[in-house]
Design a protein that fits this description.
The chain has helices spanning 28-38, 41-44, 47-60, 67-99, 112-156, 160-178, 194-211, 219-243, 247-273, 277-299, 304-311, 314-321. It has 12 helices and no strands. It is globular. Helix content is 72%, strand content 0%. It is mostly helical. Keywords: Membrane, Transmembrane, Transmembrane helix. InterPro entries: Prenyltransferase_related (IPR050475), UbiA_prenyltransferase (IPR000537), UbiA_sf (IPR044878). The chain crosses the membrane at residues 115-133, 139-156, 192-210, 222-241, 247-264, 300-319. Residues 1-27 are annotated as: Disordered.
Length: 327
């Protein structure tokens, strides 16, 4: 779970730590602000909904995940995401000097060496937390996410395999939530695998659009993201039919689905009409935050409480996104 929404590496430069720019601000507050920007605070709130959704999936099968275990896995998920975004910027520093010189590393507010150390430490900590709260299945799921993160950030970004790797980190994050009962979704009815698969496909499509954010006049990339969103909503409908929730639960799920369509539809439509960075960038950000609504729709099939608990994370994500960029 990296930022998942960064451009691929085009261009060459040797300045990767911002030594050639203006002197960065110093002091504890400036350091905390730089780290908050590095880990993408708004995006962190989109990680727990994946985990809650995973727990909701196993709840549908008759299991009863405890709130303490789900909460612990959610914390681990946030730390995984923070590690991923940190490593994303560390690997991308040479390109960001040219395309995003205001980012923490090229601006000199955080050194590239520090970012690498922090990123890997966060991934290791997250795996340890997962093991501590839910045992080996959770540690395996968290470890797979960490491997996917490093593979995407360091090797595959900008490639077709890279888009799938980014999507896979999110799908595996849903799987992480299923380990709250000491097992994974892979031990549950096979039909439930459609849910993490839908999340994987959606984020892969959004990442494809994000990778072409700076190109301009690329309606095809926006169309791919729109197709990913459409496929995810259709999968949600299929999930409701298969699970058979109550009328109230179905209504809540469909309400979240409608909110998701509205949330991502407006910016995607604007980006398709005029595919320039100033429209594609906001569309990427909306799609990232919109995942919370999609997760909530799926989770509501297990109960209204599951859906509301998942969707509630959109509030802090949106509030913090007004201060710190999502992408």
């Amino acid at each position: 779970m990296t930022g998942g929404v960064s451009s691929d590496r085009n261009g060459n430069t040797d300045a990767v730590d911002g030594e050639g720019g203006a002197a960065p601000k110093r002091g504890p507050r400036a350091t905390l602000e730089a780290i908050a920007e590095l880990v993408r605070i708004p995006n962190l709130f989109t990680a727990p909904p994946d985990v809650i959704l995973g727990a909701a999936l196993v709840a549908v099968t008759g299991h009863d995940p405890t709130s303490v275990t789900v909460g612990g896995l959610a914390i681990g998920s946030v730390i995984l995401y923070a590690g991923g975004t940190t490593l994303n910027d560390a690997f991308d520093a040479p390109v960001d000097v040219r395309h995003r010189p205001d980012r923490p590393i090229p601006s000199g507010r955080v050194s590239r060496h520090t970012a690498f150390g922090l990123g890997f430490a966060l991934l290791a900590l997250a795996v340890g937390i997962a093991f501590g709260v839910a045992g080996r299945p959770a540690a395996v799921a968290a470890g797979l996410i960490a491997v996917a993160v490093v593979t995407y950030d360091g090797l595959l970004k900008g490639t077709t395999a890279g888009f799938l790797a980014m999507g896979t980190t999110r799908g595996l994050n849903v799987v992480l939530g299923t380990t709250a009962v000491g097992r994974s979704v892979f031990e549950s009815p096979i039909r439930l695998l459609a849910v993490p698969a839908a999340v994987t496909g959606y984020i892969a499509a959004v990442t494809f659009m994000a990778a072409r954010e700076t190109e301009g006049e690329n309606r095809g990339a926006v169309a791919v993201a729109a197709a990913g969103a459409t496929a995810a909503v259709l999968t949600l409908g299929w999930h409701l039919v298969n699970v058979g929730p109550s009328v109230l639960e179905s209504g809540v799920a469909l309400a979240f689905a409608a909110a998701f369509c509205w949330w991502v539809g407006r910016p995607l439509r604007a980006a398709f009409a005029d595919p320039v960075p100033s429209t594609v960038g906001p569309a990427v950000g909306a799609c990232v935050l919109g995942l919370v609504l999609l997760d909530a729709g799926f989770a509501a099939a297990a109960g209204v409480g599951w859906g509301v608990a998942t969707g509630a994370f959109l509030v802090p994500a949106v509030v913090s996104s007004r201060v710190i960029d999502v992408t």
